[in-house]
Predict the structure.
Amino acid sequence: MLQLASYAASEETSTGRTYRESGPSYRNQYQRDRDRVIHSAAFRRLEYKTQVFVNHEGDMFRTRLTHSIEVAQIGRTIARELNLNEDLTEAICLAHDLGHTPFGHAGQEALNHCMQAYGGFEHNLQSLRVVELLEEKYAEFPGLNLMYETKEGILKHCSRTKAAELGRLGQRFLDGLQPGLEAQVANIADEIAYNNHDVDDGLRSGLITIDQLQACRLFSIQFEEVKNTWPRLSERRMTHEIVRRMINSQVSDLIQTSQAMISEKDPGTIDDVRHAGEVLIKLSEPMREKNIELKQFLRRNLYQHERVMGMTDQAKQTINTLFMAFMDNDRLLPEETWKMISGATGEQDKARRIADYIAGMTDRYAIAALEGI
Ligand code: MG
């Protein structure tokens, strides 16, 4: 087995888990975390949650589940190459979207709007809530009792107000510290995955075209190469050839740039990484610019496409209506959920429990729930 870098996360230097447990017999602690994520209910529900396209629009599009698996694949490649903790990276990648609402970002925006008077709703914070509190898998503790570094990676962003309530996990946002490198890898693997698979899904949906994408250098450079090598390739195979080359070019750039950053800053431990003053896992400046170009293209032409926006408006309305209806009359909730919510200690607590319930819904469960009220 490869020797981990001295600045990689390791269970020997970790503060470990909130609740003490005996060590795993056949796995390391981070493999155990990964497996706990895979066996969680929230992970299974990602299969029916929107990434960009609503789940029932077609079976060929990415869902949050397939997105998370692609993020993990990219993250593991990078972590392995940089001698980082591959198991931890995989655990973070698979868990990174657990707190997402149904209907993608539209759902999250709507729920945040509903929760304004009750402390708001942030999907990163919700992912942490899922693994710390909402999963009911163990007799001895709530949640999944994950390792500190796994939770550090899951809590990618957080508002300052919330950070102040989270102890050591939140303190880094107040102190301006960085997370470990595995968390940094997971963060950028997420971006690489969705930018590229959204090109693929966008083309498949017909909402964007190869011609339009020529405006993005990340795409056009690879298009030229593929076209020159195979002039008569079908559009489908051409798209895949281009997209996988796009991913490869970003991953290679990221590995080289990060290796140079690590050599320059020369961290000895994971705490040196946290105090490095900037992220060490990054794309080169030219690649970052191309990446932004692609992101802006996707925002303008895909995420803001009228067909996607139509779905977005409907999604917001669904979340809004469900939240208001449950707040007004909690007897509309299924019996088991009602029992859980009726134990709330006040309006704020009640709203939070309803938000937990709605956030846990899949797209189709939310649509069915709307029909039931
Ligand atoms: Mg993601």
Q: What stands out?
A: The mean pLDDT is 95. Residues 67, 96-97, 190, 194 surround magnesium ion (CB under 6 Å). The two ends are 56 Å apart (CA to CA). Residues 235-265 form the longest helix (31 residues).
